[in-house]
Write a structure and sequence with these properties.
Length: 277
């Protein structure tokens, strides 16, 4: 079932000594939902469509947004519009974040019932087919996660790299006691290097992240970056960025990540806009 969803903002209009208030309704997407046989529950979505979606017959790339509440969706819309990226955004609301995002439980982060494998199957077998059927998707998919949901993105990247063309992670990586799991996963995944041809991965971390005081996550990503360069080489696009003036989930990290994912297409777009002006 689909319904329009709007964001209500209260804007104060000041005229001399009188303050007026006006309700402004901003449409950020349509409500959608899908019942998952795999997860045995209903999953709610908010789907934001490109501005010209209704007036065109074009097919569009799709961005799957984990932790997809209204706030994160609005932030994503602002950045995609600023970069003039015409993308269908599928914001996936959480039901049990720890269960869905975590493929394992460790002393650092204990989870009663790690269910990332089931959530990945839900994406592959239920959600992606639903989006491709109901919306004009061109099957070019990006997935974005932050913090814990980035851990799932990395798991998906190594376990099912064929599902998405692009992967964006903000405040990304794992703690030291998770390293054996992800190292083994990477070693097995990189045995079939052709699965990663043409893929793009952007990872960003803060060097002053209060959730990573000993820089375990940062060091894990440095080691992972070395492994990626050694195993995948020039056939795979990877960028690891750090910030020393932003905390957890660095503010510009999604902007930088999406710009990296857009790559040559973004530069061509800027050139077209400049020439038109």
């Amino acid at each position: 079932m689909k319904n329009n969803i709007v964001l209500f903002a209260l804007i104060g209009l000041i005229n001399t000594s009188i303050c007026f208030a006006q309700d402004v309704h901003i449409k950020i997407g349509v409500k959608d939902s899908i019942y998952s046989e795999i997860l045995n529950e209903n999953r709610n979505l908010i789907v934001s469509l490109p501005e010209d979606y209704q007036s065109s017959n074009k097919l569009y790339p799709t961005l799957f947004l984990l932790d997809g509440n209204e706030t994160s969706l609005l932030n994503t819309i602002v950045i995609t519009r600023y970069l003039r990226a015409e993308i269908i955004i599928v914001a996936i609301l959480n039901t049990d974040r720890d269960r869905d995002m975590m493929p394992l439980s460790t002393p650092t982060y204990k989870v009663d019932n790690p269910g990332a494998a089931h959530f990945l199957s839900f994406l592959e077998k239920e959600l992606i087919p639903h989006i491709d059927k109901e919306y004009r998707s061109n099957r070019q998919r990006t997935i974005r996660g932050t913090s814990l949901s980035w851990l799932f993105v990395m798991y998906a990247f190594l376990e099912r790299p064929e599902l998405f063309q692009n992967y964006i992670g903000n405040s990304a990586g794992w703690y030291a006691d998770m390293d054996p799991f992800f190292s083994d996963l990477a070693d097995n995944a990189f045995k079939n290097k052709e699965r990663f041809l043409g893929k793009k991965l952007f990872v960003a971390n803060s060097l002053v992240d209060s959730f990573d005081p000993n820089k375990e996550v940062h060091l894990a990503m440095l080691e992972f970056a070395e492994k990626v360069e050694l195993e995948l080489g020039a056939n795979f696009s990877f960028k690891y960025v750090t910030y020393d003036n932003y905390g957890h989930v660095p503010y510009p990290s999604f902007y930088d990540g999406l710009k990296y994912i857009l790559g040559d297409n973004y530069e061509k777009l800027l050139l077209t806009i400049y020439n038109c002006n």
